[in-house]
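Quick one, tokens below:
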């Protein structure tokens, strides 16, 4: 049986995550689906590391901060957030994932 890392290796490597062993399988599949559906590279900023509030989902492997790398920056930040909102609803993740947006990128939490 393949591991989750084998399944998502086309778009992500363990080295992109602070502590790969802590990452939620559901969140990894959501990130994979976002990358696959959008066709844009997902550039991770923070997963289980970084500075977050004390009980942050990041430390539990349930959150990821990222932005899209679109061709020539062709997609505005607002359009990226809109795409994520539609994707989460379409895939019925809207009840399982939270979406946050900051000037540095997007945040997807799996709950």
């Amino acid at each position: 049986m393949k591991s989750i890392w084998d399944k998502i290796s086309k778009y992500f490597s363990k080295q992109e995550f602070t502590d790969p062993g802590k990452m939620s399988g559901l969140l990894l599949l959501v990130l994979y689906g976002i990358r696959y559906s959008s066709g844009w590279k997902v550039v991770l900023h923070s997963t289980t590391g970084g500075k977050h509030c004390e009980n942050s989902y990041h430390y539990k492997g349930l959150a990821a901060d990222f932005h899209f790398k679109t061709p020539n920056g062709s997609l505005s930040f607002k359009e990226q957030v809109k795409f994520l909102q539609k994707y989460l609803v379409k895939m019925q993740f809207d009840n399982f994932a939270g979406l946050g947006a900051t000037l540095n990128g997007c945040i997807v939490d799996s709950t």
